[in-house]
Amino acid sequence: MTDGKSYLAFVQEKTGFRDRTKVVVPLVDALASAIKASPTGEHTFLITDYGKPFSKNGFGNRFRTWCREAGLPDDLSSHGIRKAVGTFLAEAGCTQYEIMALHGHSDPKTSEIYTRSVDRRKLVDAAMDRIDLGKIIE
Hints:
Order of helices and strands: EEHHHHHH
Helix content: 40-55%
Structural class: mainly alpha
Largest sheet: 2 strands, antiparallel
Strand order of the largest sheet: 1-2
Strand content: 5-15%
Mean pLDDT: 82
Radius of gyration: 20 Å
């Protein structure tokens, strides 16, 4: 706990990369409550039906099963949540470096993917606000 805030710390692990980035994010109340209520304690709170931590592939497979059981499209993945969070952060005005810190990216270009698409959309909106399409089309 720092300055009255609790944090969730984890090591970002990606296949094929030597660098493992430590990510530290504020622990929101809802997640803190869920972790506290978990029978596994504070270190592992997503567990298999056998009470063991998920492997990386095992969690991805289970996530797809949960989506299927919920009647969601088959093309959803747990990585899609991560990508959606990156997009939401960029749309909220976060810089690529803030997204980089939250996602554990080691290269700013990886986070730029999110900010670039949002910046481009904002530029298009600003450009369209400057012209009257009705006059151009006439």
